[in-house]
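re: ur question from earlier - yeah i can do the single chain one, its not a big deal. heres the input i used so u can compare w yours
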Amino acid sequence: MTDTLPSADIQMIQRIIPHRYPFLLVDKVVDINGTQTAVGIKNVTMNEPHFQGHFPGMPIMPGVTIIEAMAQTSAVMVGVTLEMADKDMKVYFMAIDKCKFRRKVVPGDVLRMEVTTLRGKPGGKVWKFGGVASVDGEMAAEVEFTAMMDLS
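and the output i got, formated as tokens:
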């Protein structure tokens, strides 16, 4: 018998974080291992509004949206584990560190975001995460970020 880790589909994601179109940047979160690790999946499509201006004729997903997608993945990981569905959880960036971009992310790519909790615990407000985003096994971005989670 194999144990499967929890996951969150788009309906559960929307019950945990307040983000909506055009700023909901994660389609599903899989392999949720408590508040320790999770994997977010983002299917990048040409229909996203930022591609109109970034850049005309050469659509590239903005780096800040890749970081935001990793942050949303982290919030869903914590929200699923702490059973925060329908509890109006809010998350705010406090710091973004050690951010590097390694490859372009373009329409048609599937962005895989692996996030890890570096500091934080249930009941705590300030959490620090590490994230690596990749496409087809090739690193697209890496980052560490700190967030305040209002779990009240």
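The helical segments are 10-16, 63-81. not sure if urs matches, ping me
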